[in-house]
Design a protein that fits this description.
Number of strands: 8
Order of helices and strands: HEEEEHEEHHEE
Largest sheet: 6 strands, antiparallel
Low-confidence stretches: none
Radius of gyration: 17 Å
Number of helices: 4
Length: about 180
């Protein structure tokens, strides 16, 4: 089941991913600047928000019913976490909307993920104080998830972003596989 007909009237590729490139505008507000990542559920872009004059992350969910349904679950979970997310090292959703048959979710923008950081260091691990800091932040997020009765279901280095001015904090992201 594909919304909008074959390849969504030319807006999607053969895998129902939104066709976008640097410079494109989404929802007459967000200008695509670079690709941040690609996952099973969709693609994430760094975009410039012309309304707030800030860079944010924009996740564009694939145009298929199963991904739309799970995307709605993700939005619900992010809304459940919203009042405490930042204090517990979980990414904060800014907004969500439909655009050309794709569910789109905007988030605060952070740095790269732990896997990318490890790879850049030729897989030489972190210093013990840095490991303690990462573990402390991830445990804070897991405490919140436990209190809210939410299972992340995809916690891995790729879903932990370096955050903050110095990169000393981390944020847990990608609640696309989560459930209550």
């Amino acid at each position: 089941f594909i919304y909008g007909g074959i390849n969504n009237n030319g807006f999607d590729d053969e895998n129902n991913r939104y066709l976008s490139q640097v410079g494109d505008h989404i929802n007459y507000r967000y200008q695509v600047e670079s690709k941040l990542g690609r996952g099973a559920f969709g693609d994430c872009w760094m975009v410039f928000d012309h309304k707030t004059k800030q860079r944010v992350a924009l996740k564009v969910i694939r145009n298929e019913r199963r991904f739309l349904n799970q995307g709605k679950v993700e939005v619900n979970i992010l809304e459940t976490l919203s009042d405490q997310a930042a204090d517990h090292n979980c990414v904060t959703m800014i907004d969500h909307f439909m655009f050309r048959n794709h569910l789109c979710i905007t988030f605060e923008l952070h740095s790269h993920d732990l896997y990318t950081e490890l790879k850049a260091r030729d897989f030489i691990g972190f210093a013990i104080p840095d490991i303690r800091s990462v573990v402390r932040d991830v445990l804070k997020s897991l405490v919140l998830l436990s209190n809210k009765k939410i299972v992340h279901a995809d916690l891995k280095p790729e879903n932990i972003l370096l955050a903050g001015e110095t990169g000393s904090d981390v944020m847990v992201i990608d609640f696309g596989s989560s459930c209550k």
